[in-house]
Amino acid sequence: GGVVRFEDVRFSYEPERRILKGISFEVPAGKTVAIVGPSGAGKSTISRLLFRFYDVSSGRITIDGQDVRDVTQKSLRDAIGMVPQDTVLFNDTIFYNIRYGRWDASQEEIEAAASMAQIDGFIRSLPKGYDTEVGERGLKLSGGEKQRVAIARTILKAPPILILDEATSALDSYTEQEIQSALESVSRGRTTLVIAHRLSTIIGADEIIVLAAGEVVERGTHGELLDRN
Ligand code: ADP
Ligand code: ADP
């Protein structure tokens, strides 16, 4: 399961300004679709609509044929995992931060998830930059470390559908490679929608959707897009 479909989706945050102007695409079960396009094109809006942070103005979004408006928030949250651009961690060890949302997870499960996300070396430590002054506002980790904690959380949660909102900020190439391989292990076999900023995920995607000003302006595999341009 886990087929995601957007059918002629239109959306406005404010009545007079159209953000998505009739978007259709499908992410088949277990496949990866990458959404690319300039800043402001509407990429993050697509993930917010899938999560029902907002509802479509017209058209519909379905998961396995069921309109997301007919699904409870709880089952939607169970079905979809999100690796956000910026993860807020709480003031405790990486171990507890990974367990977030899966409090019943065994130590073995947590360690396996940490290992796949390549943070097994420091799950017992407090995040780098840990500072009691930071308190409830969150911990300071590098972007790459935080993203790997988010990946480990998602591996532990094991949702059928995954949204990866890739970091826009530049990561050093070593970190980028580590994150790329962690992302590949978490997305394997899952229906994955990538808000893409890295060439590597685009090349590997089953389909690339190019969005500009709320419209799909091109679509195809990486090879097909290259041939056309
Ligand atoms: P992208 O992810 O491609 O950069 P977004 O989906 O974040 O684009 O935003 C698309 C457009 O919607 C932008 O013009 C943005 O300013 C606008 N927008 C985003 N969030 C809101 C909001 N909460 N209220 C009003 N406009 C918004
Ligand atoms: P939980 O289901 O563990 O209680 P949350 O309610 O915080 O977690 O979030 C539910 C899902 O929504 C999680 O997969 C989380 O990663 C995702 N999520 C949280 N905040 C955002 C956001 N700002 N944008 C998109 N997805 C989010």
TrEMBL record:
It is found in: Cell membrane. Residues 4-229 form the ABC transporter domain. Keywords: ATP-binding, Membrane, Nucleotide-binding, Transmembrane, Transmembrane helix. GO terms for molecular function: ATP binding. Belongs to the ABC transporter superfamily. This is ABC transporter ATP-binding protein/permease. It comes from Terrihabitans rhizophilus. The chain holds residues 350 to 578 of 635 of the full protein.
